[in-house]
Structures are given as C-alpha cells and as structure tokens.
Design goal:
This protein has 7 helices and 9 strands. With about 230 residues, it is an alpha/beta fold. The chain has 2 domains: about 5-65 and about 135-234, P-loop containing nucleotide triphosphate hydrolases (Rossmann fold, 3-Layer(aba) Sandwich), CATH 3.40.50.300; about 75-135. The chain has a 6-stranded mixed sheet with strand order 5-6-7-3-8-9, with helices on both faces. A 3-stranded antiparallel sheet has the order 2-1-4, covered by helices on one side.
C-alpha cells in the first residue's frame, strides 16, 4: 500500500461532501473512481494531493511525489512541447523526454507550441509531462472528458503503455464507465453526497487484454449503472 485515507470528512459551509470515507491506494495499480455528477470526486483528489485539507480524518503514506493531470492540459503557452515536459524535472533527462514524446505519439512536434497543437495532442503532452515528473501517485481528473470517442481510445492506449513502464499508482476520476472498465485494476463506485464508497469492483485482467464486448465487462458495466441509477433515485 502506498497511501491510506481513513475516516475522511469534508464540509463546505453547510454542504457535507465527504462522510467518513476510507480508501487504500496500492502500489502499481490504477484506481478508477466513478460516482454521481457533482458528488465530490474532484474534492477527493484535491485532498489526496494536499491542495485541500480534510476537516477530520487521517491520510498516511508516501505523498512526497504526487502528480496531477487536470481536465484542461494547463500547458505553458510560451514553451514548446519539449520545454513543457522538461520543466517539471529536477534535472533534465533529454533521452527520457524524447522517449516520452515518442511514446505519446508526438514525434516531430518537439518544438511546437501549444497553440499549434490539437486538443488531443495537448493532452498527450500533459500526460507525458506527468510521467516525466516521476510521481509515485498520479491523480487524473477526467483528463479525456473533452475528447471524442476515437481520441479517448487512443489516449487510453497511450496511458496504459506509460503506466506499464512506470508502474506508478494512478487515481483516475471519470464519468465514463467504459474508461473505468478499460483502465481500472479497481473501480471505486461512490455514493451521492456526502460521498462514501458504495462498492469496489476488482478486475484481474490486464488492461491490454480487455474488451468491452466481453460478457464479463458487460456484466460489470450493468452493475455500475444500476448502482449509480439507484443512488440517483434516492
């Protein structure tokens, strides 16, 4: 285990967001978090990252190196693809930067500025930057939300390849159940506010061998949909 959240509470004014939430983050795994819209998934990521302090509860583990990939790419407009990646490293490792650029399909765009890149290319650069940071825990807040279906599929492939090499722990928030099914070693389904864990699904099949048309994944998808639908009705 790399990180443990125990008895986490968070309240904003008169709105209870987290209610006695417990969560373990294991080494070398991808956790996908799904839940009702606006329930507080981003708040949970911000608490793990240290950007927000919980009102009550304890977070233990190795949180010295935490990376963050947001919905927006947040690239620096005055720096090239190469420079945007290099900026997060303590020491510049030219070979690693070039390898990451190639691995996310940006070969030939090393010297391009963000305004000359498509949305998908910018997000690929953002993900390469996060892996260059070499974080032990990488938080991803709906990073593929604005991309079309084909781009999402490609981005998932890039992410799996990078994770296979780095084996960092990833906490991936998404509204897209298929993204969670393709990526997660564990899928955490959250309740509505104040959020808690409704159910955890474990998937032992390696990401590269998964197919959404497989009966097992159809079954899991239906279970997750039922959980989210029932929680919405309540």
């Amino acid at each position: 285990m790399i990180c443990k959240l125990k008895g986490i509470y968070k309240r904003f004014d008169d709105l209870d967001v987290l209610n006695n939430l417990n969560l373990d983050i294991n080494k070398e795994e991808i956790i996908c978090i799904v839940g009702p819209s606006g329930c507080g998934k981003s708040t949970l990521l911000n608490i793990i990252s240290g950007l927000i302090k919980p009102d009550k509860g304890k977070i233990t583990g190795d949180l010295d190196l935490v990376g963050y990939v947001f919905q927006e790419d947040r690239l620096l407009p005055f720096k090239t693809v190469y420079e945007n990646i290099a900026i997060v490293g303590k020491e510049k490792n030219h070979k690693k930067i070039i390898d990451l650029i190639y691995e996310v399909g940006l070969k030939g765009f090393e010297d391009s500025y963000p305004n000359n890149l498509s949305g998908g290319m910018r997000q690929r650069c953002s993900i390469a930057r996060a892996f260059y940071f070499n974080s032990k825990i990488l938080l991803m807040d709906e990073p593929f939300k604005s991309l079309d279906y084909n781009l999402k599929v490609n981005m998932i492939d890039y992410l799996i390849k990078l994770w296979d090499k780095s084996k960092s722990s990833i906490v991936f928030v998404t509204h897209n159940i298929d993204e969670a099914l393709l990526l997660g070693n564990r899928i955490i389904v959250l309740s509505n506010r104040p959020i808690n864990v409704s159910k955890i699904f474990n998937i032992d099949i390696h990401q590269s061998k998964r197919s959404l048309t497989d009966k097992h994944f159809t079954y899991l998808r239906n279970q997750i949909i039922d959980l989210l639908s029932n929680d919405k009705e309540e």
